[in-house]
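Input:
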Amino acid sequence: MILPGTPFHPRTSDLCQPHNWRRWGKYIVAGSYELSPEREYWAIRNSAGLLDTSPLNKYIFQGKDATRVVNRIITRDVNKCAVGQVMYTTWCDENGKVIDDGTVHRVEENLFFVTSADPNYRWFCENANGFDVTLQDVSDTTAALALQGPNARKILQTLARAEMDSLRYFSVMPNHLREIPIMLSRTGYTGDLGYEIWMENKYALDVWDLLMEVGDAYGITPIGILALDIARVEAGLMLIETDYTSVRKAVIPDQMSSPYELGLGWTVALDKENFVGKRALVQENRRAPEWRFVGIEIEWDSLEEIYARKNLHPHLPLQTVRESVPLYDGDNQIGYVSSRCWSPLLKKYIALAHLRAPYFEIGSRVEMEVTVEHERQRARAVVGKTPFYNPERKRK
Amino acid sequence: MPSYDTLIIGGGHNGLVNAAYLARAGKKVLVLEKRHLVGGAAVTEEIYPGFKFTEFSYVVSLLRPEIVRDLNLPAHGLEILPLPSTFTPMLNGDYIAFWDDHEETHNEIARHSRKDADAYDEYGRLMYHMAKAVRPIIGMIPPDPTSLSPNDLRGMLKMGMHMRGLGEEKFYQLFKLMTMSSGDYLDEWFETDALKGTKAASGIIGTFMGPRSPGTAYVLLHHYMGEIDGAFRAWGFAKGGTGGISNSIANAARSFGAEIRCNAGVAHVIVKNGRAVGVALDNGDEIYANVIVSSLDPKRTFLKLIDEKELPNDFVNDIKRYKTRGSSGKVNLALDALPNFTAIPKKEMVMQTLRGAISISPSVEYLERAYDDAKYGNFSQRPYMDMIIPSLIDPGMAPPGKHVMSIFVQYAPYNLNGGWNNEQRDAFGDAVIDTLSQFAPNLKEIILHRQVLTPWDIEQITGLTEGNIFAGELALHQLFFLRPSPQWANYRTPLHNFYQCGSGTHPGGGIMGAGGRLAAMEILKDSK
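Output:
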């Protein structure tokens, strides 16, 4: 079976020079539009990158009990989410292990728009039993674009019918681009100033064309998954299946993670009413966590030394490498890197990693395995703060 | 009582790098810049409202990675955006392009010559090895081959070992590169005129030599050096123009505590008992310090700021003979729309092409003829040009939908027959626009504003003697332990407490910062 394209495919397929389609959910999306993703990456940081995010799973919770149902599922307290606000959150199973992460948009008092990486319809339905709520899976009928970068706002301002200058970070509003009804949220996966545009499939091509036309003067650039993958590592954002395994797919306990172990303790509201996994998380919160998800920087001098032994210059991952690499303290393996890349902007080799206590503290020194000419070497690295890159404009 | 440890004359990129390193080591540093902004020849100015011109220098390929790391320049605003290709329109309406993708470039060259396409791979590998061989020299304090001091001997030994390590074949190639003309060297490799013209062009940039002049092959290599750092390569267009680079270095310097004063031109260096003790500013103020560093070019430094009597005669004569012949100009345009280069065959290729460099270098002969004009004191009627459209790389350089174009033009001799004046400047600008219009016919209609900079203008504005963009030609007799003068290539000068750190010192021009860094290390060594 040939995998289907998204509603934007008629446009993106004309532009995708390398034909490096990537599988995302049941769809394919462009890996990059040019042979190298470099310029697309820089569009995110310097002008505006346009990304097709339609394969995300999308759900609508509506009805008298919608708030209660959402609050039962997610770990954050949705009562603290005002209408027009968006919350990033995880949700867990009964044992407090993470199923998925996503965003909850409170569009109206009792209307929520929820996005997730994996399909969650069954899980959501099971938790809505007996409540006055209707749950819709709108994944296949709702197209989505992310417009990310310093010029994103200027482009949307010229098109949006309702004033959107004041739309704050992690907020959402209904709006129109010219005549086309959309939902506009100030969210994204790049750690930059950016927006996501949600629309019915039938409007997809018109919205794409409008943005490309108006955005031209602002350097709008279609971007693929490869450019996004660099930006999200710089932003310290984790990716399911790469940086953690959903408890639903875990085969052994070691593959399961609690929000605390993923550095997402801040998304767990233990003080709110009952929610799935609360009992286990209350207990876990009493213990000191064994693991944490952190950022590390690999030291340049150390890399240079390792490569110089082979009379080579350091070879750097110009695209994010999604593979596990061990981290050591002396002879002990103390963790692993799950995503790593060369940051073109910071000019640093950075990685997202899982480390055991006490090595996960900031400033802690570790060693990462590096393979040079088929030989295993170790490079010095240090635990740093994430996001690695956090421009003011993201929130301003 | 001196108020500063170090005074640095000139806020160009080397002066700023020097200041940053010294301040980082705890020195109390003051940078004195005569203009209203820092950067020297690496400045961005809004000459026409809403349009930012990267006025003189326009791309960066050689900025030393260790400087980017040591000073953490990205944290201070340095962003280097990719400049992915070079496009050369040909006189017959065709073109040759060099893309950032190896296979694509191979296919493109093969369209002209299959042999050249294969040779290009081999040539690239050889240049890589050559650049790798020469690169350590860039980071080295030049040893004096006539000196018996342990430091110099160690340096010479290190170099000797390094050269022996190259192996026979590479050593011969290196020797060829050091002595041949870029035109002759390229003839050994390729047959396509536009390919040779475009490659030869990087061997003549900033020199008063033609592609058939011996010694130009080395400059090819000089420009290859930036490639070797792979992903770390600082090659591209700096966000905000090259002024963005200067500002990031200035921000780094300030973060370490350095003070930078603009509108503070230095009239002369105050010398007492054979020692530099301070400077007198144009406004008459005097400032004293333990160490004075000049980042200006050697001629301006030693012949304008210091009384000749304070320096040894042979040194003064050396500096007088130091070659600073300006050979290039710059035209910056504010544009209402994009130029329509007719050689671009397909609409889909337009943006891909215009985002890179555009080179008017259809053949080695074309370049040599351009040089012929200059040899006899005229600007080239059909000049070599290297262009970029910065607004397509960084949209912030022009208002939405409008564009800026940066055109490097060679040759324009500093000593023009009859001298430069407004009429000559206009005629030079016209020659540039007329030549370009052959390739992009709509150009004249879309120009909103044009800034023409002759070598004379470059000298007037930046202070670079004769408008020489490298603060002294990158000719073999002016490199390494001979730059700017034998025995004084280690950033020290015959005057006590007085140092030099500009592009007129080893390893020379381009936005490298190496002189500023190496000088700082020597100053710190001496202050221990």
